[in-house]
Amino acid sequence: MQNLLRFLIVAWLAIGSAFGFSLDRYATLDSVASTDLPREARQTLELIKEGGPFPYERDGITFGNFEKRLPLHPRGYYREYTVKTPWRRDRGPRRIIAGRGGEYYYSDDHYRTFRRIKE
Prior knowledge:
The protein is an alpha+beta fold. The protein has 3 helices and 6 strands. It has helices at 2-18, 23-26, 39-50; strands at 30-33, 61-62, 78-82, 95-99, 104-107, 115-118.
């Protein structure tokens, strides 16, 4: 029975990856309260809501969601914004992604994982 189950799981993953499906796409996103975000992320969230000005040239560009870790929407639905990382000289790994529907997502590992921001 265990061998059959193992076979079915492996087959499902193989077939799914062949057709572009991934388990990540269907995973439930964790959430984080806006009050639990780092201070710099709270500041960036306020700037987004105020419409700027933004400190980084690339703030506000389209986020492609190529890895499909956020809910699927047409290209241009998401915009990305840099969250300052104090110990870094470059833009660092932290971002807030804003959706047209008013939802916000936080990533502190350069898009590998996201948490939906709850206000």
